[in-house]
Design a protein that fits this description.
- The chain is of the alpha+beta class and about 190 residues long.
- It has three domains: about 5-60, Nucleic acid-binding proteins (OB fold (Dihydrolipoamide Acetyltransferase, E2P)), CATH 2.40.50; about 65-135, Orthogonal Bundle (DNA polymerase, domain 1), CATH 1.10.150; about 140-190.
- It is about 50% helix and about 20% strand.
- The chain has ten helices and five strands.
- Strands 1-2-3-5-4 form a five-stranded mixed barrel.
- A hairpin with a 2-residue loop joins strand 2 (about 15-20) and strand 3 (about 25-30).
- Helix 9 crosses helix 10 (about 175-190).
């Protein structure tokens, strides 16, 4: 599966973007906010969700990891497909979605085109279960770095709960390496 792409933007249109990576062009769908931030000819790094169906293989790209996490949580919710998930992330950032979930704001979800009252209530319930431990700050830009530190700790064999506790008090804004070292010090002090 394709997990990320780094390349040059060849084209932007209402269907997504075309990214050239090593001489190969990849068609990627992305939220409208990400599309607006890009220009033809610019370099880009995208976090990618590869969606496989019987009749298609579709790439969905995001400029930050929290948006990818939110997208994957959305498509895991009952009745939410990739198009609707992309629509939600075109209206709200991952951080805003986190705040909506934490506040239980059904009305905010209903503001997304194609989301009615029942769908919004169901989405809120499903997302609360999937992202309940994450706040809007966890899904924001700083949360992206914290998320990467947590993933690195889990890759080293720590449980998700241990990784979450180790990163709970970390100062955000330093580099990934510094944050990982601090989290490892926290874990070694706790044992």
């Amino acid at each position: 599966m394709i997990g990320s792409l780094r390349g040059r933007v060849l084209a932007l249109d209402d269907k997504g973007l075309l990214v050239e990576v090593g001489g190969v062009g990849y068609r990627v769908q992305a939220p409208s906010g990400a599309m607006a931030a890009l220009e033809v000819g610019s370099d880009v790094f995208l976090h990618v969700h590869t969606h496989v169906r019987e009749d298609a293989l579709v790439l969905f790209g995001f400029l930050d990891h929290p948006s990818l996490v939110a997208f994957e949580a959305l498509i895991g919710a009952h009745g939410v497909g990739p198009s609707l998930a992309l629509g939600v992330l075109s209206v709200y950032s991952a951080a805003q979605l986190g705040e909506i979930i934490s506040k239980g704001d059904v009305a905010a979800l209903r503001a997304v085109p194609g989301v009615g009252a029942k769908t919004a209530a169901r989405m809120l319930l499903d997302l609360e279960n999937r992202l309940g431990g994450l706040s809007g700050a966890d899904l924001g830009p700083e949360g992206g770095l914290l998320g990467e530190v947590r993933q690195a700790l889990e890759a080293l064999g720590y449980s998700a709960e241990e990784a979450r506790k180790a990163t709970a008090g970390l100062a955000v804004g330093t580099s990934l390496e510094e944050m990982l070292r601090a989290a490892l010090r926290e874990l070694s002090a706790a044992s």
